[in-house]
Amino acid sequence: MVQHLKANLRKRMLAQRDSLSKEELTLVSNAIGEKLINHPRFKEAQCIGFYLPKGNEVDTTGMISRTFSLNKEVAVPVTTDHAMSFCRLHSLEKVRKGKFGICEPETLNPEPVEPPLVIVPGVAFGLCMHRLGYGRGYYDKYLAKSFAYRIGVCFDFQLVEKLPSHENDQRMDEIITEKRAILL
Predict the structure, then answer these.
(1) Among candidates 165, 180, 167, 177, which has minimal Cα distance to 1?
(2) Regarding the domain delimited by 2-183, which CATH topology (the fold level of the hierarchy) does it fall under?
(3) Among 46, 50, 60, 92, which one is least packed by beta carbons within 10 Å?
């Protein structure tokens, strides 16, 4: 039952997200980026775990560029068949398509790191602080073992009152949209 509810919500949210224009995507991503760059946890962290966007996810590339300009380290997910780890990213120009078509560092042996702050994507987030991803569980498995502060970023329409969740679903510490920030 939970899987069916998640699949329906995932389908609805992806359709709405995919309908965003390039201008809307840029405008909202920039607004979220401003909130993030000014966040106390961002200011104190020397290494931030971002994701490289796929499709119409909140675009983190501007946030990553600003993070580099502040002389902070950036880490992004690298995914294998069974696990995900964060590895250093040295340049937005030095990426390649990895598993599931998601960009990752192009280096052959990426350097794993444990960022104290992780920016988490999602198809939807609930006010319960859970997230709905693409259904493969990579972030949940990683976050279950991580002590990082977790900030989910999404468009405000991706935030729902109640999200169906499973016992393995990991909670966010905070969720940031273009309109608001929700704390655990």
Answers:
(1) 165
(2) Rossmann fold (3.40.50)
(3) 46
